[in-house]
Sequence to fold (189 residues):
Amino acid sequence: MTRTGTLLALALLAAVAAPARAQEPPEKAALCAACHGAAGVPINPETPVIWGQNAGYIYIQLRDFKAGHRRNPQMSPIAESLDKQEMKDLAMYFADQPWPNLQQPLPPRDDITRADSVNNQAACKSCHLDDWHGDSGTPRLAGQSSTYLKATMQAFRSGARTNNPSMAALLGSYSDRDIEAVARFLASQ
Ligand code: HEC
Ligand code: HEC
Fold:
């Protein structure tokens, strides 16, 4: 099909599938803004950016919070209130929003060297990709909140975050100092 033909077909499909409210945020998106921010900047640094995160990854996290495979006193009750279709709609909607710039500066050279060494050893980019944007079920890490990244990597390492055993195994051998350096480096990307 030509490019115009493809676009036309997609436009027709969109018109048939979702007549009136295609561009409107899903009803429950307003709920998320209370913590994840109305313009994508989270209200506090313990809360991750979800604007512009990969749709597959957002959906998997909502599903895991609801099923109890990942737990958090703030997020779990929210996810429990969502059904599967709402999770899909929210994932698509937030993935479509622009990633916000949290203005996190490049850390000191020491941290960068340490982060490089961990990233090379563990081949982080083989999954999270060269630009750290991930894809599908693999999350974007570039520009994520440094405080959140550090906490969630520590949670993988300690076994508190159980929804991905291979991430937990990968981080198992790194010190707090390594994890902090990686978090600060990724946040600045
Ligand atoms: C009361 C505050 C609060 C509200 C409301 C809230 N969240 Fe969260 N959310 C959090 C916190 C805190 C975390 C981090 C949890 C952790 O550290 O494990 C989180 C994590 C997430 C994650 C995982 C992100 C990642 O990078 O792993 C997703 C996806 C998410 N929230 C989506 C949503 C959606 C969609 C809504 C609205 C339906 C919502 N949240 C409402 C506080 C909130
Ligand atoms: C084999 C592929 C793979 C490799 C290698 C890998 N990751 Fe991951 N990573 C994933 C996947 C998949 C997830 C999502 C897990 C989930 O669904 O909870 C993830 C999740 C994460 C998260 C959580 C992000 C968030 O928003 O909560 C961080 C941080 C992370 N990885 C950092 C790293 C670092 C640092 C390295 C190297 C030391 C690394 N990863 C290596 C696949 C990988």
